[in-house]
Design a protein that fits this description.
Helix content is about 55%, strand content about 5%. The protein has about 80 residues and is mainly alpha-helical. It has one domain. A two-stranded parallel ribbon has the order 1-2. It is globular and about 35 Å long. This is BEN domain-containing protein.
């Protein structure tokens, strides 16, 4: 749950990346999405601020719950750079 929205009830259509984007949009404002980064790449300066780790953790937990650890671990490298 986040702001009275059950993130696990958001439709996924079986697509992990689309689901991640829906959850992401529920957790962060448009301004945060435009100016933030989920996880800064090691050694790379992007000029973007790291997004709230608590909400990023909610995103990860929702994905893991809906799709499982294996799929989460496989797709997370692509998701974490979706800024």
């Amino acid at each position: 749950m986040y702001n009275e929205t059950n993130l696990l009830l958001l439709p996924s259509g079986g697509d992990l990346k689309k689901y991640a984007l829906k959850v992401f949009a529920n957790l962060f404002s448009l301004e945060e999405m435009a100016n933030g980064i989920v996880e800064p790449a090691r050694g790379k300066a992007t000029g973007k601020v790291e997004l709230d780790p608590y909400r990023v953790d909610l995103l990860k937990r929702a994905i893991k719950h809906k799709f499982g650890n294996a799929q989460m671990n496989k797709k997370w490298p692509q998701i974490r750079i979706l800024e």
